[in-house]
Amino acid sequence: MLRSLVGSEMCIRDRHVYSEQGLDPGDLVTLECLAGGLARSAPSMYRVPTTPHGADPYALWLREMVSSFGGVANTSYLDAPLPGLVHEHRSSLTGVVRFNMSDGSVNAAITFVAGQAPHELLLAASPPATLTLLAGLGLPVVWDATARNGGDAYAARGVSAFNPRMVSFQTTGQSSNLAEYAIFARAPTVQYSCGNPSATTGCDMVVSQMSLNPNQTKVALGWGPEADYVTHLSAAGIYVHAPWG
Question: Are the C-beta atoms of residues 176 and 32 closer than 8 Å to each other?
Answer without folding.
Answer: yes
